[in-house]
Amino acid sequence: MSGNARQLETLIARGYQHGFVTEIDADTVAPGLDEDVVRLISRKKQEPAFLTEWRLKALRHWLTMREPHWAHVKFAPIDYQSISYYSAPKARKDGPKSLDEVDPKLLETYEKLGVPLHERARLAGVAVDAVFDSVSVATTFKERLAAAGVVFCPFSEAVRTHPQLLEQYLGSVVPYTDNFFATLNSAVFSDGSFVYVPKGVRCPMELSTYFRINAMNTGQFERTLIIADVGSYVSYLEGCSAPQRDENQLHAAVVELIALDDAYIKYSTVQNWYPGDAHGVGGIYNFVTKRGECRGRRAHISWTQVETGSAITWKYPSCVLRGEGSIGEFYSVATVNHYQQADTGTKMIHIGPDTRSTIISKGISAGHGQNTYRGLVKMLPSAHGARNFTQCDSLLMGGQCGAHTFPYVEVKNPSATVEHEASTSKISEDQLFYCLARGITEEDAVNMIVSGFCKSVFKELPMEFAVEAQALLAVSLEGAVG
Amino acid sequence: MSTPLTARIVEEHANAAAALPPAGPTAARRRTAIAALTASGLPTSRDENWKYANLRPLERLRFIPATATPALAATDLPAAIPGFARYVFVDGAFAPALSAPLDSTAAAVTPLAAAPDAGQASAAMAVQTPAPGAPADERFALLNEAFATDGAAIRVAAHSGEPVRLELVFVASADALTGASYPRVELQLDSQAHLLLIERHVSAGPHASFVNSAVTVDLGCGATLHHYRLQELAARAIVFDTLSAVVGRDACYRLHGINIGAQSARSTLAVRLAGERADLTLAVVALGERQQVQDTYARVEHAAPRARTEQVFRGISAGRARVAFNGKVVVGSEALGTDSRQSLRGLLAGPEAEIDVRPQLEIYTDEVRCSHGATAGKLDENMLFYLLSRGLEPEVAQRLLKWAFLEDVVARIGVAELRRQIEERLAQQLPEPAARAEST
After folding, report:
1. Which end of chain B has less neighbouring CB within 10 Å, N or C?
2. A424 vs B377: CB contact, 8 Å cut-off?
3. Is the confidence at residue A135, as pLDDT, over 60?
4. Is the dihedral of CA B99, B105, B110, B114 positive or negative?
5. Cβ neighbours of residue A439 under 8 Å, at least 6 residues apart?
6. How far is B352 from chain A (nearest CA, A)?
7. What pTM value is reported for the model?
8. Residue A398 has what pLDDT?
9. Closest to A242 in 3D by CA, of A281, A178, A196, A285
């Protein structure tokens, strides 16, 4: 195994490929949080009074809350008063009108990340709403979407153009009182994406947003709201990557999805934020609240996530299945290496009759990583004939890592059926031996086995994401054979 | 963590201290326990591992031990099991008149109250009795330690040869408003010892008794313990039970729990597999009807290489009952070659019944094989259809399938007479009214 050990060392020694900082002028508020800061954020974004008031209610509630510690993760105390809650790239006069006007350094950053806004976006048929340090600076393909009637814009723009939709739906899935981090987000959220797909419209392209964290000491508080009206379809892709730095950065995002009758929302995430170095120094704290509500009959929400980055991941993309016959799905691959910690999973709350949910979770632990699946399946008394199937498997690579499975099954309706199964093991010696005997190198064999392990999740990803996810996984794990 | 509840416990303890006999858990241990309890407080439903338990009755209970011992006859007790010595405890106190002592030199059973210096066994047990830093989930054992007046210290000598057969019957007779019952067992098996132990908790009369039992088990190298625990308390009883066990090298522990009785029951089982190749089978049946709450939390810790765990749970919830099983397996970084399996299944047999199952794995090394499966739902339609097509009445078919569902656990009971008694009891209990409701 010395060969493996060497490979592992090479891998550990490898720097974070996306680690660089673009120096641009940022309009950053001094660290600290009080009502004045919240009012300032709201004023800077020219928000209507109801939103300012909503933020303030959230802040007042947040001040009465305590940071939760039930997750299976360890981290140093966070000083919330030392975080700067607003940072925006400085506007050139009235802001960029086209890509040409965008700060060239910003575009350069995207180039380094392999996210050319125009060419690849067009080739891939993807509209990119690039969120750069909390304020969207460029949006493409607007016309095509507008022709279909789809609204896809930065949150701050939606505040001005569609205030009535916002007032109706904002906080209706994740209320501002929901949990410590969601409440914090509600008070200080900077920007994010807003999507509205009108009745009967099939969104003509995959929607994609690249989130990045850039300015020093700036927490990111994204807020995403997607509304799929009756009979509509939308596929939303979210990809993440962040520059290298030593200080832990807090990221507390909120994503709300609303699916009405016969609507289908597919939400895919590839998360590759800076995980900290080989000794567990630095890295992003990713404390996210994601929840979708199937309000209408036969509504369908599907979450797919590939989590390879962040020092600490704490997220549970959930589905509230209210409409009769609605469907919730959760497909997840989570990998931890070095000193990464992940406590992730889902919640499926079955309220309506004949609701169905599927959970497929694959956890991979290597190095000193700690990976936890935590999932709740709840059948309320009204959920007649509801069904759930859950499978969560863990793969262990090396004797120092941990894999934990904490499912919760709560059933209050006798006609509901819940099945849960899970297994934990290391890579099978037999499978490995078979591959080696066929002349396949150990590294390729492990990649092959791991990607087979994750196949049932990857096949749910849109094609371009599936390729990226597979490459990410190979990079983060190659040589880490136990 | 001082709450009105803990303040009241401390006050009742202070008032009762003079009346509590000096033997059993010694006065010093009592003080330590009450101090630890004051510091930590009892769990609340906000505690992760207590969210399914019913803790509300605690608010209106009295904690002082019940004193008035009623006149009971042997006929008030469950039928004796042939070949088993019997020790009966009424409201936690040893009742020699009802007992049939052990006729063997291989083992010693000492009532804790009668032990001259709290007994050697209990001194040995002190090492593993939850002390000040007690894990959060074993805090009810502190309550027992602070108040218990009597109990059984059992020691089985090394190489006992033929298995020692022993039955402990704990009878609760007092109403919770007059006093509590604190059954206590301190069990030690030396190396290669072999014990068959039946532990029964029953009621005399329909009183709403409060029972808080604590059992400690220490299995030496190669020891074997088959432990059958039956909880068949009266319908209004409240019971909290804590068992903590340490299993040594090559030792084998078969723990069977049959939880049928009480209004509200919570059983906390903590087993540490401390020696290489320790072997644990944990099989639990829980039945709930009316508004019963049957909650079990089992934490198994693999702290040595090549140990094995098998957890099986079968629960049926009818009426408006809640039946919960929270089974956690923790595999430490030193526990290479661990083999652990969990199969937790719940059956809902009433429109307002609830089943909660949590099969949890916490694993810190890679050289392991761990799996779990959990299901919750109603009876399999296909099986039911099959039986109906063979001409069985719907009710009979349903009871047959429920019976088969529990058989995974019941069939493991190795003492024939005991199994017969349990089967009879289960047959009475199988939730019929709901079965009828379901078939319509």
Report:
1. C
2. no
3. no
4. positive
5. none
6. 6
7. 0.82
8. 81
9. A285
What's the mean per-residue pLDDT of chain B? 85
End-to-end CA distance of chain B: 51
- Give the model's pLDDT for residue B147: 85
What's the gap in Å between the CA of B189 and the closest CA on chain A?
33
**Residues belonging to chain B with any Cβ–Cβ distance to chain A shorter than 8 Å:** 48, 333, 336, 346, 348-378, 438
How many CB atoms lie under 10 A from the CB of residue B389? Answer: 9
Chain A positions touching B373 (Cβ under 8 A) are 419-422
Q: Which tokens hold the place of B189?
A: 């098996």
Look at phi and psi of residue B144 and say left if phi exceeds 0, alpha if psi is from -120 to 50, else beta.
alpha
Burial of A384 (0-12, 13-18, 19+ CB in 10 A): middle
**Residues on chain A touching B375 (C-beta within 8 angstroms):** 417-420
Q: ipTM > 0.90?
A: no
Domain boundaries, chain B: 4-275
- DSSP string computed for B245-306: EEE-TT-EEEEEEEE--SSEEEEEEEEEE-STT-EEEEEEEEEE-TT-EEEEEEEEEE-STT
Q: What is the DSSP string of A314-345?
A: EE--EEEE-STT-EEEEEEEEEE-TT-EEEEE
Quickly list H helices, B345-415.
381-389, 394-410
What pLDDT does residue A475 have? 67
Tell me which range, A117-126, A325-334, B42-51, is most confidently predicted by mean pLDDT: A325-334
| Token pair for A2 | 């010395």
Which residue in A has a C-alpha nearest to residue B374's C-alpha?
A: A420
